[in-house]
């Protein structure tokens, strides 16, 4: 199992591939970016991307899809403080 690095600053969350070091996921105020890893072959880099102001439902989607696509569990300690319940 490949370890992934999760970094957050209470505003944005980044998930980096343990294999390549590339950013495979990002969640921030302007949406979601979940990308294929550099070692995966694809005609597009996006697995799941949005480009509009993020809401709580988007956070829940990001957490769910990082688990689905990469088996990465994003803990509540990484949840941005600006999200409204």
Give a written overview of the molecule.
With 85 residues, the protein is of the alpha+beta class. It has one domain. It contains 1 helix and 5 strands, in the order βββββα. It has one helix at residues 56-70, and strands at residues 5-8, 13-16, 23-28, 31-35, 46-49. The longest helix is centred in the C-terminal third of the chain and has 15 residues, at 56-70. The model has no long low-confidence stretch (mean pLDDT 90).
Radius of gyration: 12 Å
Average of the residue pLDDT scores: 90
Give the count of helical stretches.
Answer: 1
Question: Which strand-content bin applies to the residues?
Answer: 25-35%
Give the low-confidence spans: none
Order of helices and strands: EEEEEH
Count of distinct strands: 5
Q: Indicate the overall shape.
A: globular
Span between termini: 33 Å
Largest sheet: 5 strands, antiparallel
Helix content: 10-25%
Q: How many domains, in number, for the residues?
A: 1
Strand order within the widest beta sheet: 1-2-3-4-5
Secondary-structure content class: alpha+beta
What's the short version?
The chain has 85 residues and is α+β, with helices and mostly antiparallel strands. Helices cover 18% and strands 27% of the residues. It is globular.
């Amino acid at each position: 199992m490949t370890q992934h690095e999760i970094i957050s600053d209470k505003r944005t969350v980044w998930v980096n591939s343990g294999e390549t070091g590339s950013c495979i996921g990002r969640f921030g105020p302007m949406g979601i970016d979940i990308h294929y890893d550099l070692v995966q072959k694809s005609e597009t880099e996006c697995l799941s991307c949005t480009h509009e102001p993020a809401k709580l439902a988007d956070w829940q989607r990001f957490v769910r899809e990082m688990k689905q696509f990469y088996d990465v569990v994003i803990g509540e300690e990484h949840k941005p403080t600006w999200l409204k319940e």
